[in-house]
Design a protein that fits this description.
- With about 110 residues, the protein is of the alpha+beta class.
- The protein has a domain of about 70 residues: Glutaredoxin (3-Layer(aba) Sandwich), CATH 3.40.30.
- The chain has 4 helices and 3 strands.
- A 3-stranded mixed sheet has the order 2-1-3.
């Protein structure tokens, strides 16, 4: 085999990630997003199911995170899937609580 052919067949080196580096959670993502754009206005929708304990905790948690990282730069809309089932269907919500970021783009 010629050297040219051997060089062509070599696999590119694998990219290694730093040990212990984890994907950030919601708070980490919010902090990272806030640092990228201090002027961006966030439009969020939180889908919940009635006034259950899990729904109440989800509302409290997202409000706390938003106040800490996006103070005065967010609009949070809480949607009860029992009262507004069409919105949940349109967004294809299959589990609650679910948080949807409407703005800024890109949507996730």
């Amino acid at each position: 085999m010629t050297q040219l052919r051997k060089a062509h067949m070599k696999k590119p080196p694998k990219k290694s990630s730093p040990a212990g580096k984890r994907k950030p959670g919601l708070a980490g993502e919010m902090k990272q997003a806030a640092s990228h754009s201090r002027q961006a206005k966030y439009v969020l929708r939180l889908y919940v199911s009635g006034s259950t304990l899990k729904s109440s905790l989800a509302v409290e948690n997202i409000k706390r995170v938003c106040e800490q990282h996006l103070k005065n730069r967010y609009n949070l809309e809480v949607i009860d899937i029992y009262q507004q089932a069409k919105l949940a269907r349109d967004e294809q919500i299959v589990a609650v609580p679910t948080l949807i970021k409407r703005l800024p783009l890109p949507l996730r």
